[in-house]
Design brief:
Helix content is 33%, strand content 24%. The protein has 263 residues and is of the alpha/beta class.
Length: 263
């Protein structure tokens, strides 16, 4: 029985950075990764949890169960904007593939109603689940952080084996994918890491050539104490400058990749 409800922590209307056009982005709760830099730490646990309101001693619950009908009603409110802008629905998180059955039911509903679907994913799931969503997603935004598995394990808590295999699988089926690299100062932004990612794309993928680089932003840092959790970095990270981002962009472009800053 396909679940007709799932756990989300937000819905953002009129989003313009989560795929083409104007979009409604649904943020699923739950993520199997635990990235040091996560700017949505309230997305990581599958269950609802308490977070202090900003500058306050008062807590609120983050995370709620939503039915498929309720979600689709919210989505349909903006169909006119989707049609005019070439937009649609983006499912983000957390990691949407953690609630794959609910995800599939949303995708199928959108497919029926001709609503463009984008999946923002870490790619961390079984190949079986990737097969199940195949053909139901119009565009994948696919995070790639490290090719070096030890570093991936250290900074995200999981191996990248499934992630790389699933990416190769999507590539082999010529599924539209934009790779997104989070640029985290002193972590993912080294010349050697960008070189390894570029070489992996060039050597192991045939059809995927679009890459977005996403500069680190500090917006999430303040959420950790509000969730009673510690931020893993002991020093303060700074947002990469335009010059630094352009250098990374140029490095990727020397491998024939189509690169955009932001996304
Ligand atoms: S994959 Fe995304 S949501 Fe999950 S922990 Fe990493 S940054 Fe946070």
């Amino acid at each position: 029985m396909i679940p007709q409800s799932g756990m989300i922590f937000d819905i953002k209307r009129f989003a313009v950075h989560d795929g083409p056009g104007i979009r409604t982005t649904v943020f699923f709760k739950g993520c199997p990764l635990n990235c040091w830099w996560c700017h949505n730490p309230e997305s990581q646990q599958l269950e609802p949890e308490l977070i202090l309101k900003p500058n306050s001693e008062v807590s609120e619950v983050v995370g709620r169960e939503i039915s498929l009908n309720e979600l689709m009603e919210e989505v349909r409110r903006d169909i006119i904007f989707f049609d005019e802008s070439g937009g649609g629905v983006t499912i983000s998180g957390g990691e949407p593939l953690m609630q794959s059955e609910f995800l599939i039911s949303i995708l199928e509903e959108c497919n029926k109603e001709n609503i463009h679907t984008t999946l923002d994913t870490t790619g961390y799931s079984s190949l079986n689940i990737m097969r199940q969503i195949l053909g139901k997603v119009n565009l994948h935004l696919y995070d790639l952080k490290f090719i070096d598995d030890e570093k991936h394990l250290e900074y995200t808590g999981v191996s990248n084996k499934l992630i790389l295999e699933n990416l190769k699988f999507l590539d082999s089926r010529k599924i539209p994918v934009i790779i997104r690299i989070p640029i985290i100062p002193g972590v993912t932004d080294s010349e050697s890491n960008i070189k390894e990612i570029s070489e992996f794309i060039s050597a192991s993928l045939n059809s995927i050539r679009n890459v977005n680089i996403l500069p680190y932003n500090r917006l999430g840092e303040g959420k950790y104490p509000r969730l009673n959790r510690s931020y893993r970095f002991t020093h303060q990270l700074t947002t990469p400058s335009d010059k630094e981002l352009n250098k990374i962009k140029n490095q990727l472009e020397t491998y024939g990749l189509e690169v955009q800053v932001g996304g």
